[in-house]
Amino acid sequence: xxxxxxxxxxxxxxxxxxxxxxxxxxxxxxxxxxxxxxxxxxxxxxxxxxxxxxxxxxxxxxxxxxxxxxxxxxxxxxxxxxxxxxxxxxxxxxxxxxxxxxxxxxxxxxxxxxxxxxxxxxxxxxxxxxxxxxxxxxxxxxxxxxxxxxxxxxxxxxxxxxxxxxxxxxxxxxxxxxxxxxxxxxxxxxxxxxxxxxxxxxxxxxxxxxxxxxxxxxxxxxxxxxxxxxxxxxxxxxxxxxxxxxxxxxxxxxxxxxxx
Length: 260
Prior knowledge:
Strand order of the largest sheet: 2-1-3-4
Number of helices: 14
Strand content: 5-15%
Shape: globular
């Protein structure tokens, strides 16, 4: 008997949609390479995390309802972002804890939702990719993926299979880069000091490229690297794993034009 294809709904994320669509296309290539059938519902919008973090539960719930409805019917929901995946997986159930209609729907979506790299390794049991990336890289463990979803070994497992890639671990790989969504807006001086510490570590490592699984962190760090005139590229891990690194690095002035 033929096995039923695994239907994956791709949660694109706001930042990928607006700043780095190539990450979404790389995610599709990786998921299809793992044997999934992928679709990106047009009705999806933000995951609601900015409203949630700001204490606006009413709007967070309104956004979450739209997401839940858009992704019902898929076997899994996958996001190339630990931050967005954690919002759906860890916080949606709490938003609807007292709602008899939406609570089971939120819990159902939470059970089926995963960050991209953890889905590939933990669910689809992908242990290697057929990509090549020549150079020395450093990896930043984004806070939400690491602390809420337990994503640590999964990206390193797949990066170890990339030909030509040398990973150099940062002493503070698990320390926040200072972005934190609204944190960088509320506390800009603290945020700037945190990202400065991060870029100094990256430069000291000798890495030519910084990788991470969250675009928010990458945009923050890439911006600081550029302001400090440090010659370090920044890329989402999906681009490297999928072998889709023709686009300019994040922060390169040509990147925005290339994405259009």
